[in-house]
């Protein structure tokens, strides 16, 4: 579902049915690679908090901008899958679980989960654009160590070390815009901080070599926070398992994605310290996605809206992605130049750029130049804006850093509020 600059990736979902939907690889593992869950349990275990912090990228041999542009590919939807058409109470801090997220250069956010018994730690991208969990695993027939080779940043799940692992013998293949992963569905216990998913079905990926860019990613796998309609093989999702287990008082979660420093995923509520004002709630416009009706897209005084009537809010996409014709028109109006998969502007001109606004529920959510610029290479600033071939917009991490989003799974709504970080950020602070 989205395209993000390689950290934006980070939203791999499960393998899409080849016939209809190509499971979206959300901006393939990069820009947002940062949800390093430092799981801190909350009193009562009703809420989970996951912290986020910056982690140095894996060794790179090319320029950061070049790598970012290569990685910026959005989650893919099968052709013809025209996505989306068609005031929740605030949860008290003590009633939720907070998970720390790691921020990889403000491009990707990931956190840790525990897999098996005893728990094996793996880092995953928490992806609202997909619905399955997969982690890299040791091939059952191979006698290899339970960790990836020294030159690789990845840890591997070793089912032989888990007393609760249960093999199914069922193969899976998840296809993304950047390739795919394959392996076997299995069942084992999963822990996200103090929250547990007992005997949960997920993918142990024994072959990741076809997933382009993965060797340089800072995360190991992907944990989907989407709906069952997107789940490969119609498997129960993590959110379904949490709801059925009654571990949370409210099936709500929210992301705090900072430009710098630690971030946080709160499951079971929201953190008032991470947003200002009140939430504006909007019903979902599609049963399969975290999508909302889009009233308009504006750049300064210019309004653009043709067939793009929906926007998907995707934590697995680093950037903002939109229909190619509209993105190209907006970029031209900003004086941006296309460099491979991304648009750049002269940094000295960036401050004078008009604001880009998305009208949702009758309210404008604007992004200034400081909000849109994600990286700088010499005199050039890269915009967090990318084109894709579908007729809807994807509001990824660039949008979610400016606006705190409350995902209400139980009521099928999303709430939007200005993030506290954005409220206190200097508009002239162009670079992350």
UniProtKB/TrEMBL annotation:
- Mark out the compositionally biased spans (Basic and acidic residues): 151-164
Catalytic residues, per the record, are 127, 314
The record's annotation in InterPro entries points to: Aspartic_peptidase_A1 (IPR001461), Aspartic_peptidase_AS (IPR001969), Pepsin-like_dom (IPR034164), PEPTIDASE_A1 (IPR033121), Peptidase_aspartic_dom_sf (IPR021109)
Give the Gene Ontology MF terms in alphabetical order.
aspartic-type endopeptidase activity
Q: Which PROSITE patterns match?
A: ASP_PROTEASE, PEPTIDASE_A1
Checking Gene3D superfamilies in the record gives: Acid Proteases (2.40.70.10)
One Pfam family, short name please?
Asp
A GO BP term here is: protein processing
State the UniProt keywords alphabetically: Aspartyl protease, Disulfide bond, Hydrolase, Membrane, Protease, Transmembrane, Transmembrane helix
Spell out where the chain crosses the membrane: 34-52
Q: What is this protein called?
A: Peptidase A1 domain-containing protein
């Amino acid at each position: 579902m989205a395209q993000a600059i390689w950290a934006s990736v980070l939203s791999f979902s499960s393998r899409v049915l080849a016939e209809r939907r190509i499971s979206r690889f959300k901006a393939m593992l990069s820009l947002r690679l940062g949800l390093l869950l430092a799981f801190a349990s909350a009193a009562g275990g009703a809420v989970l908090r996951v912290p986020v912090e910056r982690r140095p990228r894996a060794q790179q041999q090319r320029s950061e901008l070049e790598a970012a542009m290569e990685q910026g590919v959005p989650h893919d939807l099968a052709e013809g899958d025209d996505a989306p058409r068609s005031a929740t109470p605030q949860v008290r801090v003590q009633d939720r679980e907070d998970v720390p997220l790691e921020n990889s250069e403000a491009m990707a956010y990931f956190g840790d989960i525990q897999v098996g018994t005893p728990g094996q730690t793996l880092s995953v991208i928490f992806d609202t654009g997909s619905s399955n969990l997969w982690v890299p695993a040791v091939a059952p027939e191979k006698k290899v160590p339970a960790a990836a080779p020294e030159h690789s940043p990845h840890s591997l799940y070793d089912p032989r070390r888990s007393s609760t692992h249960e093999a199914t013998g069922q193969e899976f293949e998840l296809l993304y815009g950047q390739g795919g992963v394959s392996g076997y569905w299995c069942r084992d216990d999963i822990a996200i901080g103090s929250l547990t998913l007992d005997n949960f079905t997920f993918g142990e990926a024994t072959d990741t070599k076809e997933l382009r860019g993965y060797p340089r990613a800072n995360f190991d796998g992907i944990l989907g926070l989407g709906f069952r309609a997107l789940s490969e093989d119609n498997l129960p999702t993590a959110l379904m398992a949490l709801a059925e287990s009654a571990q949370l008082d409210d099936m709500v979660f929210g992301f705090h994605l900072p430009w710098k420093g630690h971030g946080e995923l709160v499951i079971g509520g929201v953190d008032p310290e991470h947003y200002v004002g009140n939430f504006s709630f909007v019903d979902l416009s599609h049963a399969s996605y975290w999508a909302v009706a889009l009233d308009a897209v504006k750049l300064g005084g210019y309004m653009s809206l043709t067939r793009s009537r929906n926007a998907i809010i995707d934590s697995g996409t680093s950037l903002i992605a939109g229909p190619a014709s509209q993105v190209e028109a907006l970029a031209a109006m900003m004086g941006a130049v296309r460099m491979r998969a991304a648009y750049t502007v002269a940094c000295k001109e960036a401050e004078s750029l008009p604001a880009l606004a998305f009208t949702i529920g009758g309210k404008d959510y604007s992004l200034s130049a400081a909000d849109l610029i994600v990286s700088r290479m010499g005199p050039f600033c890269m915009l967090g804006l990318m084109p894709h071939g579908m007729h809807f917009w994807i509001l990824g991490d660039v949008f979610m850093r400016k606006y705190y989003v409350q995902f209400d799974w139980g009521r099928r709504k999303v709430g939007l509020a200005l993030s506290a970080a954005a409220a206190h950020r200097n508009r002239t602070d162009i670079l992350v």
